[in-house]
Structures are given as C-alpha cells and as structure tokens.
Amino acid sequence: NDCLGREWQLGTVQLDYNLPSADRFELEYVGSDNMAHQPVMIHRAPLGSMERFIGMLIEHFAGAFPLWLAPEQARVMVLSQKFEEYGRKVEAQLTAAGLRVTGDYRAEKIGAKIRDAQLELIPYMLIVGGREMETDSVSVRDRIEGDLGSMPVAEAIAKLQGEINARTVRQTFSGSAGFVDRGTQNQY
C-alpha cells in the first residue's frame, strides 16, 4: 500500500505458452513418453518492472524518503555568506564520509532556506554560523523531529551514518493513514 492506502501490484509469476513456440525458437524436449513436447516458460518478476517499483516507492513514501534512500541526504546551510567557507568545509567532510549532501549558500534568510529544504523533503539540514564555526560543530535539524541542537561535525556524521546503516523507516507524516496533503493540510 502507498501513502494514500492504494494497493500496488508489483511481483508476478506467469506461465508463458507462446514464447517458446515451435515457430519462434523451435524449442522442444523429449518427455518420458519418448515424444517431442513444447516447453512452457515460467516468467517471474519479483519486483515487477524497475520503473513500476520506483514509482511505487515514490508513492509509498510520498517523496519523503528515509535517509538511506533519499537522493539528497543532508543540506548544509549558512546563516550568512561570511560563513560560506566553513559551510563548504563541512559539506566536504560529509561528502568524504560517503553522504549525499549539498550546500545552500544563497544570500537568503535562514528561514527561507529551511522552508525550501522542508518542501524538497531533505531529511537533514545542517546549519552553520559563527558559534558553530568556532566550535567545529553544526546545528542539526531533522525534517520530522525539527531542531536537534548543536553537535560536533564528527558526531553529526556518525549519527547520519548510523541511521543509514540501520535502514530505519520513521513515520514521515501525521494522520491516520500516514499522509497529510502539504497544499491543503487535509489528512488522508
């Protein structure tokens, strides 16, 4: 079932009587009766087509993928452009640790950057400013739980890697069926 409660069919096991026909491949085998027989092909696709599977994943998570599956796992954001160098250093450390991360170095207010990342369903936002630069830390914001406070960069990396390795799937949206339409705020 996806986030709206719809059922999806993915895997199939099918008997194919047509593909191995004599006029296509001239396939036959000798049975226990010493007669030639046309084989039956068993076709299986445990996940269905790759496109259908990816579509189902997107629908299931409503685009809000768990950290380990998200194309962009974290975004580094600077409070102002004077902290861009430190932000790029943090971004490089996260990338070197194997995380999929980008940086937001626009001359926008931090609230706008956070809002954009929330709308883009980025799992973690790592905010850096003067205090974080002095202490080699980041202020961590989780898409689901909100502000997690400040922590050293190495600790933030370990936290994200731990969640990735555990392959956790957390409740992403509120509502009885697990989905809230972000445009109308209606619960489904």
List the main descriptive attributes of the protein structure presented here.
Rossmann fold; five-stranded mixed β-sheet; two-stranded antiparallel ribbon; disordered C terminus
Characterization of the model:
This protein has 188 residues and is an alpha/beta fold. The chain folds into 2 domains: 12-61, no CATH class; 74-166, Rossmann fold (3-Layer(aba) Sandwich). It contains 6 helices and 9 strands. The protein has helices at 22-25, 50-61, 84-96, 110-119, 130-135, 153-166; strands at 12-16, 29-30, 36-37, 41-45, 74-78, 101-104, 124-128, 137-142, 146-152. Strand 5, helix 3 and strand 6 form a beta-alpha-beta unit.
- The portion of residues assigned to helices is 25-40%
Biggest sheet architecture: 5 strands, mixed
Average pLDDT over all residues: 86
Any guess at the CATH architecture of the largest domain?
A: 3-Layer(aba) Sandwich
CATH top-level class of the largest domain: Alpha Beta
Radius of gyration: 25 Å
CATH topology of the largest domain: Rossmann fold
Oligomeric state of the chains? single chain
- DSSP E strands, number: 9
Give the strand line-up of the largest sheet: 6-5-7-8-9
The count of helical stretches stands at: 6
Class of secondary structure makeup: alpha/beta
